[in-house]
Design brief:
With about 200 residues, the chain is α+β, with helices and mostly antiparallel strands. It is built from 5 helices and 12 strands. The strands form 3 sheets. It has a 5-stranded antiparallel β-sheet. A 5-stranded antiparallel β-sheet has the order 5-6-7-8-9, with helices on one face. Strands 3-4 form a two-stranded antiparallel ribbon. A hairpin with a 2-residue loop joins β5 and β6 (about 40-50). α3 (about 135-145) runs antiparallel to α4 (about 155-170). The longest helix is centred in the N-terminal third of the chain and has 22 residues, at about 50-70. The radius of gyration is 16 Å and the shape is globular. The model has no long low-confidence stretch (mean pLDDT about 95).
Length: about 200
């Protein structure tokens, strides 16, 4: 029941993930962090089986850091997406596949902001905006209608809030909190968490 949303603009990329940790019919917590900082200008939003998400995200993050230590420079978002896809593909053909869906947001000094959509079958696509989970059924149409690549961070954050508000209104499952991060030329930054209370004030 996870929900991930990502949008790429001309100067930055923004990603959001719900903070609900549920098991069967029970909500265990509503402050789970599903966003992982992989490097200075690279972040991942991940959803799927609880054990797989933690282990896979940490494995990718440590390997990205290992590459930096060995080669004295960081993987670009495109290179990191290909590496991540290869790990998913290799494990898909083994007895221990990872059941994870993810969004990879990063900033490349030459190519600018980038956003990659990846699923558990190891397919990858560079996109302007994307979503995983049931929330995507409601979010994609809002992004189709309102997305402009020239939006500012404030406008991009407001667009995310529109998506989350629609998820709150339409989706039968309760996903009250969404953690938000922005990736730009200065690195990865946390934005205010989108909550039911903050949407009431909007």
């Amino acid at each position: 029941m996870d929900c991930l949303i990502g949008i790429k603009f001309n100067d930055f990329a923004i990603i959001a993930a719900d903070m609900t940790n549920a098991h069967s019919i029970m909500v265990m917590k509503t402050d789970e962090d599903k966003l992982y900082k992989l490097s200075n200008k690279l972040a991942m939003a991940i959803a799927g089986e609880q054990g797989d998400t933690n282990q896979f995200a940490e494995y990718i993050a440590k390997n990205v850091q290992l590459y930096k230590m060995r080669n004295n420079y960081e993987l670009s978002p495109k290179e990191a997406s290909h590496f991540t896809r290869r790990i998913l593909a290799d494990n898909l053909r083994s007895r221990t596949p990872y059941h994870v869906n993810l969004l990879l947001a990063g900033y490349d000094n030459q190519e600018g902001p980038q956003l990659y959509f990846m699923d558990y079958l190891a397919s990858v696509a560079s996109v302007d905006y994307a979503a995983h989970g049931y929330g995507g059924y409601f979010s994609l149409s809002i992004m189709d209608r309102n997305y402009l690549p020239t939006m500012t961070k404030e406008q991009g954050y407001d667009l995310l809030k529109k998506c989350v508000k629609e998820v709150h209104t339409r989706l039968i499952v309760n996903l009250p909190n969404f953690k938000v991060q922005v990736v730009d030329k200065d690195g990865v930054h946390d934005m205010p968490t989108i909550t039911v209370e903050s949407l009431k004030d909007a």
